[in-house]
């Protein structure tokens, strides 16, 4: 039997107990029809797993008793940061889900010249909560020990200025590239961290490509294939993880 697994609520456990409410309570009590005595497990951002047992189920919450926490180990290298051009709702949701399953370390949405989506100031926090919830669910499903970090959207220019020139930075470009993705990845075998930039539908503008290459980013292509933005990002993440022995 697969043991249900959930992210550890903030500030818990308290006195060896975890209290669940809201959507997690509903899923455990109503969907899974769990009973007192059933095993569950929690994972935290600290890389620890908390094997637990359900103590009590009331009309609004589930109380679990935690056992000895277990260190799940570090996430395998490389730590991948995905800079993803903002996508429309369903496509961005899919991208975040699959990126989390594939082991991405951090996702930072970027605003480019061709971005289809522009988030107003009041929509950023609700959107971040929504994306982080998706990442949590994908982490539970894939049995990862670490929930990917998702940061607020930033402009293309800020990304270029913030990148560490010492770390490998791959820039996916369908029009201009210095080589194939395969060739670029095989030069990165000893890297602990990699940044990957994927544009929105329509890709990066010629000015953005020139600016990225001028800052020393390695532009790569998928050998003439024109993929949807979310497909390209998922494909690149899969290839990188495979080449590093993580798939």
From TrEMBL:
Recorded catalytic activity of this chain's protein: uridine(1498) in 16S rRNA + S-adenosyl-L-methionine = N(3)-methyluridine(1498) in 16S rRNA + S-adenosyl-L-homocysteine + H(+)
Intracellular or extracellular location(s): Cytoplasm
BP GO terms, sorted: rRNA base methylation
GO CC annotation, single: cytoplasm
Main location, first listed in the record: cytoplasm
EC number(s) given by UniProt: 2.1.1.193
Keywords: Cytoplasm, Methyltransferase, rRNA processing, S-adenosyl-L-methionine, Transferase
InterPro entries: Alpha/beta_knot_MTases, PUA-like_sf, RsmE, RsmE_MTase_dom, RsmE_PUA-like, tRNA_m1G_MTases_N
Ribosomal RNA small subunit methyltransferase E PUA-like domain residues: 20-65
GO molecular function: rRNA (uridine-N3-)-methyltransferase activity
Ranges where the Ribosomal RNA small subunit methyltransferase E methyltransferase domain occurs: 77-241
PANTHER family linked: 16S RRNA (URACIL(1498)-N(3))-METHYLTRANSFERASE, RIBOSOMAL RNA SMALL SUBUNIT METHYLTRANSFERASE E
NCBIfam families, A to Z: PRK11713.1-5 (NF008692), RsmE family RNA methyltransferase (TIGR00046)
Similarity comment: family membership: Belongs to the RNA methyltransferase RsmE family.
Identification of the protein by name: Ribosomal RNA small subunit methyltransferase E
